């Protein structure tokens, strides 16, 4: 398999994201790592390309569970929220298909913000 280009293009800028399914874990006040959500969705880029995104991971909100349930955002700096995004797309962004990635996540009831890094 060819290695990713050294000067890899910048990740596409999303304009729309559609969630096609999600499985959420139950939360409790006990601090213990648990499976994070498993999400599948479609990201539409600024140039019209569609990228399928699947994520799985782990989350431990610990003492911040109450903040989360109250509607506040809990950040990756406050709690352990990590996922491994997987991309599937066509030729224009085919380099994404070869990446192994990890993400630090900021989590609220209404959204997840991913800060994604590719592993070398």
From TrEMBL:
Top-rank taxon, per record: Bacteria
Pfam families: DUF3237 (PF11578)
Protein name: DUF3237 domain-containing protein
Species per Swiss-Prot/TrEMBL record: Actinomadura viridis
């Amino acid at each position: 398999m060819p290695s990713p280009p050294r000067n890899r293009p910048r990740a596409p800028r999303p304009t729309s994201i559609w969630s096609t399914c999600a499985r959420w874990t139950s939360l409790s006040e006990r601090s213990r790592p648990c499976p994070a959500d498993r999400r599948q969705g479609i990201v539409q880029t600024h140039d019209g390309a569609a990228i399928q995104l699947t994520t799985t991971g782990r989350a431990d909100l610990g003492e911040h569970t109450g903040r989360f349930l109250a509607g506040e955002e809990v950040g990756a700096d406050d709690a352990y929220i990590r996922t491994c995004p997987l991309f599937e797309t066509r030729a224009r962004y085919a380099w994404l298909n070869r990446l192994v990635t990890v993400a630090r996540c900021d989590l609220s009831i209404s959204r997840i913000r991913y800060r994604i890094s590719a592993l070398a």
